[in-house]
Amino acid sequence: MISAMILSIGDELVLGQTVDTNSAWLSQQLAAIGVRVTGHATVPDDQPRIEAAISAASSTCDVLIISGGIGPTEDDLTRQAVAAVMGVPLELNPTALATLTTFFARLNRQMPESNTIQAMLPRGSQMIENTCGTAAGIKADIARPAGGNSRVYVMPGVPREMKAMFVRDIMPKLQSEGGGAAIVSRTLHTFGVGESTVAEQLGALMQRGRNPSVGTTVAGGVVSLRVNAYFDSREKTIEEAERTSAACHQILGDLIYGQDGESLQQVVAGLLRQAGKTVATAESCTGGLLAKTLTDLAGSSALFSYGWVTYANAAKEQLLGVKSETLASHGAVSEEVVIEMASGARARAGSDFALSISGVAGPDGGTEAKPVGMVCIALADAQSTRARTFRFSGDREFVRDRSAKMALAMLRFKLLGKSMPF
Amino acid sequence: MISAMILSIGDELVLGQTVDTNSAWLSQQLAAIGVRVTGHATVPDDQPRIEAAISAASSTCDVLIISGGIGPTEDDLTRQAVAAVMGVPLELNPTALATLTTFFARLNRQMPESNTIQAMLPRGSQMIENTCGTAAGIKADIARPAGGNSRVYVMPGVPREMKAMFVRDIMPKLQSEGGGAAIVSRTLHTFGVGESTVAEQLGALMQRGRNPSVGTTVAGGVVSLRVNAYFDSREKTIEEAERTSAACHQILGDLIYGQDGESLQQVVAGLLRQAGKTVATAESCTGGLLAKTLTDLAGSSALFSYGWVTYANAAKEQLLGVKSETLASHGAVSEEVVIEMASGARARAGSDFALSISGVAGPDGGTEAKPVGMVCIALADAQSTRARTFRFSGDREFVRDRSAKMALAMLRFKLLGKSMPF
Question: Between chains, do A106 and B393 touch, taking CB under 8 Å as contact?
C-alpha cells in the first residue's frame, strides 16, 4: 500500500485565518483509491520551514502531496523550496510559459511580469497543467537519504484549482501506481432525519470492526452513510461494498436519495426530467436560494424557467396574487400564505409544479407563536396545493439551507408518488 | 517571543472524515496573545507516530499544543505517547479519578471501567481540569535534546471541550509566561482585479521580512491583504498595523471594499442603508444567487423586496417586459437585454436601483461569439441604465459566483459615486 503525507503551505493557515479544508478533502480522495495517509503538516510561507517539512515527509513516505505557495507573489516559496531540497536550480519551462501567456491572452489582459515565476520549475521536474488558473503544478522525485525516491506533487492552494488538478492528473497516476489490496467506498445520502435515527435503524451494520464498515457523517443536514470495503481482490471488494450498500437500502428505503457525488437537487432534476415536468419557485425567507440550488446544474432550463423572490408582503401580493386579507389574518409566515404563493407562481409560470417558502430565518423577527426557525413550505401541482410547517433549529444560514432542501425533498417524494417518511 | 506547534491527533482527521478546525482556532488565539505558531501537524491514532511528532515538535518549539487522543477507548494513545517521550510511566492521579467519579455520579451513571485510563497521567505531569467532559488535560515538560524544556499541553479533541479548557486554563498561563510581544493582524479585502495586480501595486509593502508584513490570499475571487505586525508592546503593534493598513488603503483606494470579517454584500447593504435606498434583482444565469446573497444578511428586507429569476426568454418578456425583438436581434446574453431586464425590474419593484445579470454559465451553451463565461450585467437607477460585459474564466459555479459579486461591485461604486477602476 502506498503511503502519503499531505503538506499545506501558507501563513494564513498557520495564523488560523483560513481553515485548511484541502487536507481533509485530499485524505478522503487518497483513502478512496487505497493510498494510506500517515499525516498532515502545515507550515508558513517560510522557505527554510517548507524545506524542512518536505525533507522530513519525503524521507518517510512514498508520496508527498503539497498544496499552496505557488502563486505569483514573493511570499510564494514552495517551488524554490522543492528545488532546494532536490539540490537543483529553477529553470524556465517553455510549456508553462506558453500556457501562462495563452491564459492572459484569452482574458485580453497583459501578463504581469511577476507571473513569469509561475513558469519556473525545478530542473528535472515535470509541469502539471492547471486548467483553472495560472499556477502550474509540479511533479518531482526527491531522493531519500535511505535510498530510493519519494514522489512529490505540488498543487495550488486554491481549493477549486487544487481539486481539479488532483482529480484530472494526480489521482489517475496514483491509482495506476497502487495495485494489490483495494478499498472501495460508497456513500449513500439521506435527508430529513437525524444521524442517531439513521444509526439506530442500521443497527448491526454499523458495528465496529465489520468489513465492509458502515459509518455516518453529517454535512448540511445530509446524513451520509459511508460504506468502506477492504479486501485482497478488487472484484471481491466491489462485490462486498455493493452487498452492504444493498443492505442499507433495504433498511432505509426512500430515505436514501442518492449516492456518492449526487446532490438532492441533481436527483430531483433527474426525476423532473424523467417525468418531463417543470417547476417554478416563490421564495420569501430563502431569498432566491431554492432557485439558485435548482439552477446549480447545467441544463436546468429544461425544468426551471420562472422564479420569484417576494421578500416583502407587497411583492407577494403584486407578483404572486397573494390576497392582502390572507396576509393580514394569517401573517406572511403561514401555510395559508405559502399555499397562495405556490399556486400563484404555478399559474403565472405555467409550470407543472411550484414550490414556495416563507419563514422566520432569524436572527430577529421571531415571536412566541412564530419563533425563529419556523418555516412554511408549499408544493402546488395540477390537483392541489399542500403546505407543511417545519421548525429548523440553527442560525440564519442553517434555517435557509434546510428550508431549501426540505422543499426539494417534498418535490422528490411527490415525484416518487410516495408520502414523506418524516 | 514564544513559539508554538499545534498537533492534532486522530484517525478521522488523517482519513479526511473530519476537517480539523481546532488548529485554526488555536492559531488565532495564540496569535492574539503574541505566541508565534510555526506549524500544524496531524497524525493518526498510532503511538509510534504520535511519539515521533511530539519529539520532533518539542525539539524545535517552546510550546506544543496537542488536541485529541485522550478519550477512554483503545485507540486513544496520546497520554501513553507523552509518557513514552518523557521516559516515565503513567500513574493514577487521585484528583483526576475523583473528578471522573463525581462526573459520572452527577449524571447518575456508573463509571465504565474503561474510563479509569483517563485518570492516568505521566509521572511528573499535572492535570488540567475538564469542565465539560471526562477527559482531563495534561501539562508536562519534555526535555529537549539541545537542553532546556519544551512545555506540552494536551487537550481533548472535541472542539467544545478543547476551547473551554484552552480559554480557562492554558491561555492565561501562556500569556503570563509570554510577556510583552504581540501580533496584530488586519485583513483588507479587494474584488475585481487579480492577485498579481494587487501585489504589483503594493510593491515594497509586500517585501519579505518587512514588519508589519503584507501578504495576499485569494478566496472566491476576493483578493485579501493580510497585514501582520509583531512588536514588543501591544500599543506599538497596533499602531504599526494601522500605519501599514493605511498605506495599503493609500495605494489601492476604493479597490479595498472592507476589512476582517466584512463581506462585499455587507458593505453594499451598509451603503444602501446609509443612503436609504433599495435594490431589486433580475437574474438569468445566476438563477437567484444575487438575491440569495443580498438576503444572507439579517435585516435585508429594508433594502431588498423584489427579485425575479427569469431563466427562460418567455419569463424575461412576461415578468420584466423585455421586448421579444430585443431578444431576437441581440440574444438573451446581451447588454441590450440586461438593460431591459434591469429597467423592467426597477419599474415593477418601485426600487431605487435594479441589478440584472444574463450570461453563459456553462458548461454548455457557449458559442464563438458568446463563449462560456461571458456575462452581461446592468445597473438601473433613476437617471439611466448602464450595462457592461465581463468574461469570467472558470466552471459554472465560478462564473455564477463572480457574476453576482461583480453586480454587487457595480452597485458599490455607484453608491460611492465613483467609476469602477476595473
Answer: yes
CB contacts of A292 in chain B (<8 Å) are 286-289, 292
For residue A298, the tally of other CB atoms under 10 A from its CB is 14
Of A112, A306, A318, the CB nearest to B197: A112
**What contacts 24+ positions apart, CB below 8 Å, involve B56-60?**
B56/A56, B57/B5, B57/B7, B57/B150, B58/B85, B58/B142, B58/B144, B58/B150, B58/B152, B59/B144, B59/B145, B59/B146, B59/B150, B60/B3, B60/B5
Which B residues, 109 through 138, put their C-beta within 8 Å of a C-beta on chain A? Answer: none
- The model's pTM is 0.77
Prediction ipTM score: 0.76
Which residues, listed in sequence order, are joined to residue A37 by a DSSP beta bridge? A4
Per-residue tens of pLDDT for chain B, all 422 residues? 789 999 999 988 998 878 899 999 999 888 877 788 999 999 998 999 999 999 999 998 999 999 999 988 777 899 999 999 999 999 999 999 999 888 888 877 788 887 888 999 999 999 999 987 888 999 999 999 888 899 999 999 988 889 999 989 998 888 777 655 677 778 899 999 998 999 999 999 998 789 998 988 888 899 999 898 888 887 898 999 999 999 999 999 999 999 988 999 999 999 999 999 999 999 999 999 999 999 999 989 999 999 999 999 999 999 999 999 999 999 999 999 999 999 999 999 999 999 999 999 988 889 999 999 999 999 999 999 999 999 998 889 999 999 999 999 999 999 999 999 88
Amino acid at A345: A
- Of chain A residues 266-325, which have a CB less than 8 A from chain B? 281, 283, 285-292, 294-296, 298-301, 304-312, 314-315, 318-319
Residues of A in contact with B206 (CB under 8 A): 73-75
Start-end of H helices in B276-366 = 289-294, 313-320, 324-330, 335-349
